[in-house]
Each structure stands twice: as structure tokens, then as C-alpha cells.
Amino acid sequence: MCDRHQFFFEFDKAFTDQLIRKFESSPAHPLSEEVAPPLKGVYALYRHGKLTYAGKALDTTLKRRLAEHTRQIRGRRNISLETITCRFLTIDSDWFVRAGEHALIETYEPEWNFSSLAVG
């Protein structure tokens, strides 16, 4: 039998494609302590319009996590809070939150996720 009859559903590729489409169509907001709801999910920080950090709010909330980033950035000398925006998606399932963060990091390779100077 030739392999043209075999079907293999690539769940991770389908999930990543759908998540990235939804994420990119979500609005960007100025980063602030009140920007997000008190729900779990995934988020990204943008500096000068470039995605620089992707994270998750799983054992905490998006509201709390983005508020932490706001305070950290406010306390830094070489970063202005006015240059930072964020996007986020609320996600109900713990597994999908973890998978969502992984998809964002794998897709965008944000520099702050791989830096010792990260704001995370």
C-alpha cells in the first residue's frame, strides 16, 4: 500500500496555526497594570512593535502577570513603558495554556525569552 492512503492529523501544527491566527488578530494594548482580565491565558510583550517576550498566566492571572511586567519595566532605566504594548488570549484549559505559550515561543523566538536580562 502506498502512503498516499494514510492520514496523520498533525494536532500540534493545527493548534499552533489556529492560535497564531487568533493571537495576531487580537488587538494590541499599551502595557499597564489593568490591561488584562483576571483569567488564565497567554500573552506577549512588544517593544517598538516587535514581539520580544511570550509568556503564560497559569498559576496566576493575565491581569496579575501583566501588572508584574508593568512594574518591572517601570523600574528599569533603559526601557520606557511607553514603548511597550501587549497582546493576550484567555484560555480555559491548563494544557492549552502551556501549549499556547510553547507555540508563541516556537513561532516568534522572542529575544527576551532567551536572554538573562529578560523581564519575565
Describe the fold and architecture.
This protein has 120 residues and is of the alpha+beta class. It has one domain: GIY-YIG endonuclease. 36% of the residues lie in helices and 20% in strands. The protein has 3 helices and 4 strands, in the order αβββαβα. A 4-stranded antiparallel sheet has the order 1-4-2-3, sandwiched between helices. Helix 1 crosses helix 3. The longest helix is centred in the N-terminal third of the chain and has 15 residues, at 11-25.
Keywords:
120 residues; 3 helices; 20% strand; alpha+beta; GIY-YIG endonuclease; elongated
What is the element layout, followed by pairings?
Elements lengths: L10 H15 L3 E2 L10 E7 L2 E8 L4 H13 L9 E7 L3 H15 L12
Antiparallel strand pairs: 1-4, 2-3, 2-4
Helix pairs in contact: 1-3
CATH architecture classification name: 3-Layer(aba) Sandwich
End-to-end Cα distance, whole Å, is 51 Å
Total helical segments: 3
Q: Which CATH C-level class is it?
A: Alpha Beta
Q: Name the beta content range.
A: 15-25%
Structural class: alpha+beta
Q: How much helix is in the residues?
A: 25-40%
Mean pLDDT comes to 93
Radius of gyration: 16 Å
The unreliable regions are none
Largest sheet, in brief, is: 4 strands, antiparallel
Q: Return the CATH topology.
A: GIY-YIG endonuclease
The succession of helices and strands, N to C, reads: HEEEHEH
Query: CATH superfamily assignment?
Result: GIY-YIG endonuclease
- Which word captures the global form? elongated
Please indicate the count of domains: 1
Query: Within the largest sheet, what's the order of strands?
Result: 1-4-2-3
Task: Give me the count of strands.
Answer: 4
